[in-house]
Amino acid sequence: MTAKQKEILSRDLDTNPDMKKYYITIVDLDPLFGMTQVDIDANLAKALVKKVDAVVHANLKPFVDRAIAEHGDFFDLDKPKKVEILEGYAKELIASEKPVVDPGMLPPVE
Description:
By secondary structure, this protein is mainly α. The protein has six helices and no strands. The termini are far apart.
């Protein structure tokens, strides 16, 4: 399905190479491309997909936009490096949503 989507994008966006490169990158970097949210949620509950992949999937466009802004050569990087950057953003988001326990708020242990 990914190959077909890339073929369609290549054909339909042939007159706009920048947009073509952008959307092909989006499709290429989506770790859960083609999966419905219901399937993703079910697979997360069964630990069949990584939370990082689900977060990248759900935030792919803003993550790619951020990567382009922070890494001017983002499109020229190899796929493993691009994935590493997006996974870093996902881990950052996951960590920011974890509750922080202030040890000073806990009752003393006797």
